[in-house]
Amino acid sequence: MQANERAQPLRVGVAGLGRLGRRHAGNLAYRVPGATLAAACSPLEDDLAWARDALPEARLYRDYAELLVDTSVDAVWLVTPSALHAQQIVDALRAGKHVFCEKPLSLDVAECERVVEEARRFPDRQVTIGFMRRFDPSYHDAFEQVRAGAIGRPFLVRSQTCDLNDPDGFFVRFAPGSGGIFLDCTVHDIDVARWLLGKPRATRVFAAGAVALHEGLREYGDVDNGVAICEFQGGKLAMFYASRTMAHGNDTSSEVFGTAGALAIGHLPRANRVEIYDAHGVRSVCTPTFFDRFEEAFLIEAQAFVAAVRARHGGEAGAVEHAQQGATLEDALEATRIGFALRESLRTGQAVTL
Amino acid sequence: MQANERAQPLRVGVAGLGRLGRRHAGNLAYRVPGATLAAACSPLEDDLAWARDALPEARLYRDYAELLVDTSVDAVWLVTPSALHAQQIVDALRAGKHVFCEKPLSLDVAECERVVEEARRFPDRQVTIGFMRRFDPSYHDAFEQVRAGAIGRPFLVRSQTCDLNDPDGFFVRFAPGSGGIFLDCTVHDIDVARWLLGKPRATRVFAAGAVALHEGLREYGDVDNGVAICEFQGGKLAMFYASRTMAHGNDTSSEVFGTAGALAIGHLPRANRVEIYDAHGVRSVCTPTFFDRFEEAFLIEAQAFVAAVRARHGGEAGAVEHAQQGATLEDALEATRIGFALRESLRTGQAVTL
Amino acid sequence: MQANERAQPLRVGVAGLGRLGRRHAGNLAYRVPGATLAAACSPLEDDLAWARDALPEARLYRDYAELLVDTSVDAVWLVTPSALHAQQIVDALRAGKHVFCEKPLSLDVAECERVVEEARRFPDRQVTIGFMRRFDPSYHDAFEQVRAGAIGRPFLVRSQTCDLNDPDGFFVRFAPGSGGIFLDCTVHDIDVARWLLGKPRATRVFAAGAVALHEGLREYGDVDNGVAICEFQGGKLAMFYASRTMAHGNDTSSEVFGTAGALAIGHLPRANRVEIYDAHGVRSVCTPTFFDRFEEAFLIEAQAFVAAVRARHGGEAGAVEHAQQGATLEDALEATRIGFALRESLRTGQAVTL
Amino acid sequence: MQANERAQPLRVGVAGLGRLGRRHAGNLAYRVPGATLAAACSPLEDDLAWARDALPEARLYRDYAELLVDTSVDAVWLVTPSALHAQQIVDALRAGKHVFCEKPLSLDVAECERVVEEARRFPDRQVTIGFMRRFDPSYHDAFEQVRAGAIGRPFLVRSQTCDLNDPDGFFVRFAPGSGGIFLDCTVHDIDVARWLLGKPRATRVFAAGAVALHEGLREYGDVDNGVAICEFQGGKLAMFYASRTMAHGNDTSSEVFGTAGALAIGHLPRANRVEIYDAHGVRSVCTPTFFDRFEEAFLIEAQAFVAAVRARHGGEAGAVEHAQQGATLEDALEATRIGFALRESLRTGQAVTL
Fold it and tell me: DSSP letters of A241-309?
């Protein structure tokens, strides 16, 4: 990596400067060796004001099209509204850029397929979808242990995405556009399951749900707690749980069971290494949000993307593997396909065959 | 209770002296205040030889019918093969006995219904089916916390029954008679879920499974790992996992999620309070079998049954509640009904509506 | 054991029917195979009234001397005030009884020595001092692992006895007679350390203390938090911590370090297997008192004593080992000697050589 | 901080490019906003070759004196042999530099005092000694909780520094120069204890030790396992344990007890959030070395130093507090003084009064 650090840095332009976008921009500007934050783009004046202060060396644009014509930008980093992702990826590829795009690729399977097809025309461009859990050190360690055969043949993943309850139910307003709990939350668990099980294709799914607290979701056919089973080719299985009503914090965990053992990742979502002994007993405070839980993963994800692009350019051995560490467009398509089937199953009460 | 201990003891006759039967017999003979082990019954000479040595004060019978005509036996304790349970319960009730019967009530729903109907004719007889988890101190504590409102309204249970792998696959031979993994193992989790959720009725289930290690199960349509979802009336949910292939021990755990918090019972199936620090890291040895995990529950279950019968006879306040602590025939019927539907779903790949 | 259970039971007489005495009496009456509670003794009318109700089959005495002349009592069980222990043991031995005595043997080293000497005249009588931790299943498992060489050569024990704070400071009134925190609490840890390290003799100790909450202790030279180091022959070491001011419960734990690993017993004093997920984080409720933590140990201790006496009488192989499972008078003498030295060190601020 | 990031960066020169020096250099070069690594210095050709490759923008020196005359260096970062620290700090201050110096300040109390005195002449220079635990997020969280009163008045700290055993005993060769286990390892725990207890002065100490595995230490009067008690003004206490013979990894943990609760930091030194379920039970792999455990602390420590210096220059509110987050020379002096007394106590077997 040291050699890379001296090579020409990768010049990145971030599109989207909301809460998560700002975090990505800060990482790319100050914490990713081999990258410079060359440009940032948002239609919102507030975002640009923030950028003028926090990202003094970045060129600022209001319009994504302007970013794409900036020839000193090598890669775009999309943290824009989900509905824009698909077209923005295609446009970026046509403009010759590498692309990192936050999940989801799209809430529409056909649109996912169009992007996959289009991207095949640009095989020398790196495209990564932001399933950041793959870069969390604990998830990564589990993945490597599975790959090394530590648990024999993996055949079952249980995985959950559980968010701290927002008593204001602010998110209910976004229910129409979020795609529902399975496409918004479980899509991460779907990607984790496929990644840990060797990327099998799903064959059948079943889902059910409950509205525990947020009655407003009912009119959109959505739930605040969802459970699901997914069957894969080769007799592999996954169980998913997603919740928006936890009292204790963001509780994201996964387990992978194999023929010779099992691994659990993230049991007890402790915020740090402190335990408190008081009248409540012995307790650990929990990570409040996915930002807190996956802060490090977001950073490593950015470092890995930059390293992957530079490895391609450097013609380095291992470049292909580097490039595949993150989720590909095909992975994102498959996760969306499964998420859709779960939503369909929730709606109909029937198992859905893929 | 002290008053009870001086009252006339309950005279119990155990039928079935296999591994679990012997444990029940030893508890009743030596560790249950207010009970005496008056008789024991088995058709096997080995069992009777064991009993002559270990239970010197018990009258011994080869034939269940003889036990039933022994008028100095107040209650029978059935630890016999599952296929006999239903008829033996009915016979015992007709002979005027109270009945404790190991799970399952029956592997046939219609037969369960016949027993329920017959038992209605004997309202003053105590009949309890041995879902011992209800008496495990940790499960009981969780139940009491839920009842006291500690987690708000409970709406989801996740529960698992995972056994240490038997490399010889000895249990495969019993697959034809066990009813399959859901009726044999998950039936405990079904009872736990209904008990913690307020005894709702199931409305729809879906199940899937995998054969991870024991290929011989395929010919019986059984699996060594099964997953399931159960929807209940009132929008409540349960997820189940059963496995016969764990590498670390018997891992039985449950979680109940409510609108204001959650409780986990049995996470990390540590055998005791010892942690080992060595070249493997920091570790806890696990309970190898359900006997080790639920030893205390079997004892408390017996104590509770005896206390319940004596409370009925003593006309004590709280007698009804005592009597309902364990699983009733109706609970066992509902657990069997759900277990059957899970087996059907596994077979068909479709959701099953109840 | 089954053979024993048919042999003549050991007839026990309990002396002292306070809180702990009643627990011992209840265990011996109803939960110890091979024992009967033949008699009980207390000078207090309240205690005797309790006994008439709870122990209907026991002969009741006001006077310890009456208990000793009851020839149908084989063993006495002393749960009397500490100051009486030494003489009561001697008197019981002279009356031909086996003796179980709660700790401490005495708060006076010379008196301990007199009892040891006197007891040598009765080699066929079983005398055990109630260091119940040895019978806790987790402590016992650790002991067996150490003995089997699992951690190599053990050379260091850390052990603590920490009690839930009593805001009323009721115990301060007993400070004059308790012998101080080291003789009252740490004496258990001293016994654990010697037991796990192979019963070495102490060579030097140092102690210090703090009054965190209970200022009233100062006038007795006592503290509510004490720390100590003990050096043993052969270069072995122990560290002790005792506290009366915990906010979370009774927290009794020990660690033993060896040349090839370490064992921890009782880290995280969870009351059971339930974890609570709520706005405080994820927590375990703790055992409030040593009664709750060591309930099982008290029972096993009684079973082991009875088994040991019966094994002696039965001339069984292993009888000697059985008899030595609990703490001997010599163990109690050595623990008292070390406890005294700690008190002396606390008083003088100097290391004390033994 | 964003404003700072645009201000003139702090130009740092690292002296010493061994294993830890290289880590500091890499952090300062690439991961500390507001800093640039302007120069690096080592007498060793290997180190310089590494630096030419890894730190292409740094000016390289063989001689510390050259670094001090480089006027474009604002601060020096000493990761040199311990014996050089004291004089190098003084020389740096006289050359007008801010100073970060790895612990220990010196192994000689008088020399520590000389540095403290000399540094008083340069009140506008930032001098921090590298007790990095203060910057570990978990230690920092505990410190903030204590400061906020969460556990009432803190009165006792238990703290340990336990290293994975090196079977080759390589470190034995360095025993003559390390100052012994208390000055080399426990000095961190001493600083933690004083920091969490409000920086009290020690009044008396006692130490003992054992040679568990590394017999070669005996000739230097050193041990591979040491235990100690430290009494502070105001009736506060600390207990320390240091070991070089752990089987499971680097196990650094601390506890602070207060009148209303306690906090534990670092119990169970798990490497990450993965748990392994296999034939050994359920286990966590541990951090092998202090590098792995405190990687993040080293980075935050560097960020805090840089922020503190820049805050001084910016005349910012909170600058003084920032500047005091790390250990001052006075803290290092006091830690050394206590470490010395522990060594003296180990040697003499007597308590040592300070």
Answer: EEEEEESS--EEEEEEEETTEEEEESSS-BSSSEEEEETTEEEE-B--SHHHHHHHHHHHHHHHHHHHH
